[in-house]
């Protein structure tokens, strides 16, 4: 685990000393958008037109942020248009690596490079910052288009529609204000909340994350008692962004990140919703619990120095979801 400073790798763990024991996530650097015609997107530069075979995703199957992009690739029929490399689940002193000795890890299928950091320095030899996944790579200009999952899924939602004919819309304009509002709270208290609880090195920082996390899960359980999905009868981006955290919760966050006031199986509505989303065609194939458990329990030396990976739980995401009584669009 480390980061790049002016293109050089430095092996250092997150600094929580300067923040009173709190984990503070850094912002991402590459913020360009693929658009149907290459016009600039909301941020960054233009020049990234949607084309079959032009783009590549670097992901970890363990990472909830990268997982979002794989789900959209599956849902939007992009499997044949966007290629993928999968890193090894263990993230140790070299950061993410392209060691392909673990089942499902592919190595760097574009360049055969050894480390994920090599992809970042290929894009910018003097780059400073963390080496994170996902990365959306442009094979034409040999650079990183974006390493911000929230924006990658927004582009995949529409940019390739003209090529695939798939017009499924997970961020419809009329629901966008509602989706953005849900995302804002869920990002802070749930998606990032589990990390803030897990990486906290003071009781105060842990408490500050873990109480809002469970308040948010109670709030979500209430929404899902009355609604098929977070915004009502339509399955949207807000659901997919929550899904990648919830599917990891009982296996990892509950134990490893000390988020243990309750498990997801203790919330009937959230648990049914989780199963329904897992059972959406294409989604189960993006979920790899071996990568997930191996990554967290093995990579975080400060939390689990023995690297012992616990046995359970063994979830049954294929069981009937029991959500048919709630209307669906
Ligand atoms: N803002 C980024 C965050 C991605 C992220 O934090 N990924 C983690 C893996 S779950 C990572 O690569 N961490 C490596 C590091 O922080 O050094 C996104 O959502 O795309």
UniProtKB/TrEMBL annotation:
Family matches, as InterPro entries: Glutathione-S-Trfase_C-like, Glutathione-S-Trfase_C_sf, Glutathione_S-Trfase, Glutathione_S-Trfase_N, GST_Omega-like_C, GST_Omega/GSH, Thioredoxin-like_sf
PROSITE patterns linked to this entry: GST_CTER
GO-annotated molecular function: glutathione transferase activity
Record-annotated GST C-terminal domain positions: 172-299
Residues annotated for glutathione binding in this entry: 96, 130-133, 148-149
Keywords for this protein: Transferase
Record site: Lowers pKa of active site Cys: 253, 296
Keyword Transferase (UniProt): yes
Keyword Transmembrane set for record: no
GO CC annotations, alphabetized: cytoplasm
Active site: 63, 195
Protein name: Glutathione S-transferase
Biological source species: Ketogulonicigenium robustum
Lineage: Bacteria, Pseudomonadati, Pseudomonadota, Alphaproteobacteria, Rhodobacterales
